[in-house]
Amino acid sequence: MSLPRIFRRAFSTSVESDSTPSLKSISRDLYKERSLKQLVQKFKKSSEIKLFRTKTNIYKDMVHRLASAKCFNWIEEILEHQKKYEDISKEGFSARLINLYGRSGMFEQAQKVFDEMHERNCERTVLSLNALLGAGLNSKKFDLVGGLFEELPKKLSIEPDLVSYNTVIKAFCEMGSFDSAVTMLDEMEKKGVEPDLITFNTLLHGLYGKGQFLDGEKIWDLMKKKNVVLDDRSYNAKLLGLALEKKTKEAVELVEEMKSKEVEPSLFSFTAVIKGFVNEGNLEEAKLWYNKIEQSGLAPDRVIFNILIPFFCEKGEVDLAFKLCKEILQRKFLVDVSLLQLVVDGLVKESKMEEAKKLVELGKFNKYARYSLKLPSDE
Fold first, then answer.
1. Least packed by Cβ within 10 Å: which of 6, 104, 231, 316?
2. Is the distance from CB of 199 to CB of 165 less than 8 angstroms?
3. What is the CA 159 to chain-centroid distance, rounded?
4. Under a CB-based contact definition with an 8 Å cutoff, are residues 125 and 137 in contact?
5. List of residues 6+ apart from 93 with CB closer than 8 A
6. pLDDT, tens digit, for every residue of 54-109?
7. Per-position DSSP letters for 303-362, written without gaps between them
8. What 8-state DSSP symbol labels residue 276?
């Protein structure tokens, strides 16, 4: 007796779904796989499933894992494998491959995918243009980004958008070509593209962070003139600029302004102010602002310790430096051994032998990362 067609179809679908692993189980299996060679083979096999090929995050995680292990040949193997599927004729899929190559610092392969799109009759719009510009930025090919931005829109009749401009501005800032970066604002205005907070923050961090304080101030004033709502990244950029200029009084006032505008100061904010006081040699204020970190419910990071420990040693505050060293070990931060050795030497110089020996022992038996510290008398 044959089953009615509707039941045959339902039965067929049920068998197929039972025999095909779920994406969740595939993802779990890939995550658990410790052998990178096996991982590559499993990933290629999973790529045969059309739905799997839509999962951008799985692709990102896979490539990130291989890039972290510096297995660039395997990254190329899995991404080139994707070209066998019909999805490659879609711009979004090709743009994803360009992006993934870029994230891995493999710009030549990214550009190859972009160039091959024409051969496949795959339309190239601002989407794939931005993917290529982003690949250049992520691969640190900053000089190429400006050239591509100048050449490709004209050649392919593509109108750059806000993302395009933001990417090239970032590349110019990374190169230190600040005049070119700022000039982009004029070009955006001519093209009717309105800069956003990302545009301005990129310029602020580039200018203030590289000591171009007055130019940073011009962008800051322009933001206020355009009524751009400043966020913590905007304020942090200026705080860094003020720290480098040793304008810590203004930095403190700026933190108060942040609070009044309900912009919560971040760890970066406190670090910038502390850096400013260290640059000025103001020990008491540096200590005061370090204590404010904990009072604000934040936790210090190793950047803070790298700034404060040499400063405390220079000012003869070796007990404080010793305390921070213990905090480094307790928080399992990885620091250069020379930072801890500096404190050991400072403690010995101050005849604090018990503390010096304690720090040597803590470094020697620290489970997270062992530091080979020496008492001056051991050398």
1. 6
2. yes
3. 28
4. no
5. 53, 82, 87
6. 999 999 999 999 999 999 999 999 999 999 999 999 999 999 999 999 999 999 99
7. HHHHHHHHHHHHTT-HHHHHHHHHHHHHTT----HHHHHHHHHHHHHTT-HHHHHHHHHH
8. H
